[in-house]
């Protein structure tokens, strides 16, 4: 299902199926929106309702829109007021089935995409062989590939490559192979969408930090259990306001990354497990840390102090006792030794400690 153009269909309130209206589902930068011809009976305003729809044409399928708000434009004809158009905004759209309450929106996993991630992992998948005598070329690639990492009891992190092939027409041929990388988080049992969405957000932050760039969500797919044993799961595409953000087509360079995947590939499972544990146990401290990173207008001094405070709070909560900043750095180096080639020198640690004391003292005096 593409979201780059309006899609026609019939739409109705989840609690009033007979009252169907024709219209279009479109996707603007501020979120999904429905434009209907006319208005629902006796409903001038819509406030946090669920709307069902059936899309027509090549995109024919069921759709559920959550958290819908809207109003109708009215005209007077023959001394009677009638709704001419209704515009409805939604924050969450699920393709593939009908839901009657938000609590029904559960799944056994979630898949999502992030820009630049495929370049960071850099998995070789193409092989080309030329036969110049026969004037032929053979191109092979891995269309579907999975790499699983167990990060915690009942939580699996998976890299999923899904390849598609597009051929050219007669004349000058252009062969396009698209092999996007999906990141999948799976759970042992069915959990709510909010919990799955939260897990996806924490891993997005993790990769944003490693790649040192903003990584908005591109797509979501909700994985649900299937009654058919021959089908491992049922996939429902999910579109929410945050997944419609425009991503600039910028170049990718390893020089801009905090860590390069080829250098940490051996220790990547440990890195994922450590991150999952921190995100689960020390969420408040990490929230403060990342909250500082998304505000570039904060001065360098306050950024540095915020990082120090977050580190100290993390270790304080895990140990239950106050730890001086010098030991904070040493403890972090020990915890993440699998990903650090050489520990910071004692001189560098002393410079950090002195800077922390200096900035804290000067900020306090202001």
Write the layout of secondary structure elements.
Layout: E1 7-13, E2 16-28, E3 31-37, E4 45-55, E5 61-77, E6 80-89, E7 92-95, E8 106-113, H1 117-121, E9 126-131, E10 136-141, E11 144-152, E12 155-162, E13 164-166, E14 176-178, E15 181-192, H2 193-211, E16 219-224, E17 234-240, H3 261-264, H4 268-281, H5 283-293, H6 300-319, H7 325-335, H8 346-365
Antiparallel strand pairs: 1-2, 1-4, 2-3, 3-6, 4-5, 5-6, 5-7, 7-17, 8-15, 8-16, 9-10, 11-12, 12-15, 13-14, 16-17
Helix pairs in contact: 5-6, 6-7, 6-8, 7-8
Give a written overview of the molecule.
This protein has 366 residues and is of the alpha+beta class. The chain has helices at residues 117-121, 193-211, 261-264, 268-281, 283-293, 300-319, 325-335, 346-365; strands at residues 7-13, 16-28, 31-37, 45-55, 61-77, 80-89, 92-95, 106-113, 126-131, 136-141, 144-152, 155-162, 164-166, 176-178, 181-192, 219-224, 234-240. It has a six-stranded antiparallel β-barrel with strand order 1-2-3-6-5-4. A two-stranded antiparallel ribbon has the order 9-10. Strand 9 (126-131) and strand 10 (136-141) form a beta hairpin. It is globular and about 85 Å long. The termini are far apart. 18% of the residues are buried.
A few lines on this structure:
The chain has 366 residues and is α+β, with helices and mostly antiparallel strands. It has helices at residues 117-121, 193-211, 261-264, 268-281, 283-293, 300-319, 325-335, 346-365; strands at residues 7-13, 16-28, 31-37, 45-55, 61-77, 80-89, 92-95, 106-113, 126-131, 136-141, 144-152, 155-162, 164-166, 176-178, 181-192, 219-224, 234-240.
